[in-house]
Design brief:
Elements lengths: L4 H9 L7 E3 L8 H7 L5 E3 L4 H6 L6 E5 L5 E7 L17 H12 L4 H14 L9 H7 L5 H18 L3 H14 L4 H12 L20 H7 L13
Parallel strand pairs: 1-2
Antiparallel strand pairs: 3-4
């Protein structure tokens, strides 16, 4: 049986580079099935505090950064896929209207897995001489700005997390709602909150995240409102 994309890439390139995947999940149990499947060879972590959002500027998944052996960012957060998703080629003609429309937006999400995988391999082989390795000035130029509202959103989301971890999920809701308002383009904030409302107890996390009575919006409605699948993640500039 072949390994999934990131595991296969890690097996190919280690020890020239290390590939670490991190789940952004306030509730780590949502990530355990994926981490268990990757064990023991592939390093997998859970960021239950969303520190990657706060420190590196992640705002969606899957995204990645490249970090060299000196701990310096070589590429800032960008959409990251290394294998084609079956969802892109799935025939949805027989699906109900709502699901078909959602899948049509999924197919529009940008990304060239063949080119991105080749870029990582080139970096592993050539290091700083790789044409895909950016200078610090280039990394800064490509990084997302962080206006004051986004900083406030991070604080609100963190307060909501703390309340959730203390067993006060209802008290977390207004803080997460405010985080959504202040940084409406941050999908990790939205999806975390929506998942707790739309997922059934004991079931895997709900990825469709339809409208609910607790939060405004839904995955499909917000994707369309924010510009469609084409705007869902920032495609790498290779």
């Amino acid at each position: 049986m072949s390994l999934p994309g990131w595991q296969a890439l890690r097996a190919e390139l280690f020890p020239r580079i290390e590939v670490v995947t991190v789940a952004l999940d306030v509730d780590p149990t949502f990530a355990h099935p994926f981490i268990d499947a990757a064990a023991p060879e592939h390093p997998s972590l859970v960021d239950s505090s969303h520190l990657l959002d706060e420190v590196l500027g992640f705002w969606n998944v899957p995204m990645a950064v490249w970090i060299d052996e000196d701990g310096v960012l070589v590429r800032p957060p960008e959409g990251a896929v290394v294998e084609e998703s079956a969802l892109r080629t799935m025939d949805t003609s027989g699906f109900p209207d709502g699901i078909r429309e959602m899948m049509d937006e999924v197919k529009k999400i940008p990304g060239d897995p063949v080119a991105y995988r080749a870029a990582i391999v080139d970096w592993a082989n050539n290091g700083s001489a790789s044409r895909y390795a950016l200078t610090p000035d280039e990394v800064i130029a490509r990084s997302q700005p962080r206006p004051m509202d986004h900083a406030r959103a991070a604080a609100c989301f963190e307060l909501g997390q703390e309340l959730w971890h203390r067993g006060l999920p209802d008290a977390a809701v207004p803080w997460w709602r405010e985080a959504h308002r202040l940084h409406n383009e941050n999908w990790t904030y939205k999806r975390q909150a929506w998942t707790f409302v739309t997922s059934q107890p004991g079931q895997p996390p709900d990825l469709m995240q339809p409208p609910n009575d607790v939060y405004e919006g839904s995955w499909y409605a917000d994707v369309v409102r924010l510009g469609g699948g084409e705007k869902y993640v920032n495609a790498p500039e290779l």
